[in-house]
Each structure stands twice: as C-alpha cells, then as structure tokens.
Amino acid sequence: MRISQDIRNEFGSAESQAALAEAAAGMREKSEEFLAAGGKVYLPELKVPAGS
User: Which of 27, 48, 49, 50 is the most interior residue, by most CB within 10 Å?
Assistant: First the structure.
C-alpha cells in the first residue's frame, strides 16, 4: 500500500493523468493553429480610412 501511495503522490491518479494528456493534446492543437496563422503575437495595426 505504501508503494501505491508513493506512486499516486509522485504521478497522480489515472484520472489526473488522463486530464493532463487531454490538456496537452489541446495545447498542441492550439500551437499548430497559432503557427498556421503566422505565429505572430502582435499583429500589424489596422489603418482606419480618413474621413470615417
């Protein structure tokens, strides 16, 4: 029982491991989306036409 508790303390439960894997997959997907959009944090400033 001590070994099992030590493992849970070190690595978490199966449920928390599944949640971490799901979060990592979501972050990987968002990273790919960000890179596909150009990978820039700051986009160029939009110019507003004069007289509007």
Answer: 27
Beta-carbon contacts of 20 under 8 Å, excluding residues fewer than 6 positions away, are 12
Whole-angstrom distance, CA of residue 24 vs CA of residue 39: 19
Provide the pLDDT for residue 51.
74
pLDDT digits (tens, 9 = 90+) for 11-47: 888 888 888 899 999 999 999 999 999 998 887 888 8
Length of the chain: 52
20 neighbors 12 (Cβ within 8 angstroms): yes
**pTM confidence score:** 0.55
Instruction: Report d(CA 2, CA 44) in Å as an integer.
Output: 57
Question: Which residue ranges make up each domain of the chain?
Answer: 2-36
